[in-house]
Amino acid sequence: MLKSSLNESTGVYQLKIDCGDLYLRENVSFDDDCDYCFDTLKLDLSDSNEVLETLEVHMNYTVPYKKLNNYEKGDNDHLFRVDILKFNQTDKTFYICENFWTGYEQICKKIIKNLKNLEKIYFTGRHFLDNDGTSLADIDDDEFIRKQLNNPKWEDEVMLDPAEDKDDLDQLIALRKEINPKIDIEFSALTDDSEKILKDKGIIK
Fold first, then answer.
1. Distance from C-alpha of 200 to C-alpha of 205, rounded to nearest angstrom
2. How many C-beta atoms surround the C-beta of residue 25 within 10 A?
3. DSSP 8-state assignment for residue 49
4. Whether the Cβ atoms of residue 41 and residue 105 lie closer than 8 Å to each other
5. Beta bridge partners of 81
6. Local structure of residue 159 (DSSP, 8 states)
7. pLDDT tens digit string along 92-151?
8. How many Å apart are CA 3 and CA 25, to the nearest integer?
9. Does residue 89 contact residue 120 with C-beta atoms inside 8 Å?
């Protein structure tokens, strides 16, 4: 069973989802875990107009990427987080995991409207990070989770591709229209074709 931990005060919203152990849970779907995260966010923020100075939403997973033969429940040496949404007043950049944006665009746009001093929206990939912010060891995360950890339902990482996916493009056009034109939109990775079409549409510089 997934669990959530919330830290909320004036201008601050921090949500941590404990998604458990990918070796011990059965047939895990990242999309299903995102649904749980979305339901919590919707309950907390969909009707709120509070201005947010700090926002942190992440999922915690235990990922035993070695020593599976003698792996024991409760081993905390392999705890990783996936940042879903992140914003603070240091760089005034709203980081959105592309996996979460897809399908949850409305709640993301609702949150965007409430962010104080927002200067940039940055779409980033799904990364498993340890406490030091270091990515999971150099392996194919998705294939490893499916095959070695016995989670065949685990979905590949979603990367936006507006040159190939009309819905991706339409949602980004809508976002650009709804936010201040001074707010930059950037991506951690784009194909050359997608970068060109986003520039042509005035979505990115």
1. 9
2. 17
3. -
4. no
5. 60, 129
6. -
7. 999 999 999 999 999 999 999 999 999 999 999 999 988 777 776 556 789 989 998 999
8. 14
9. no
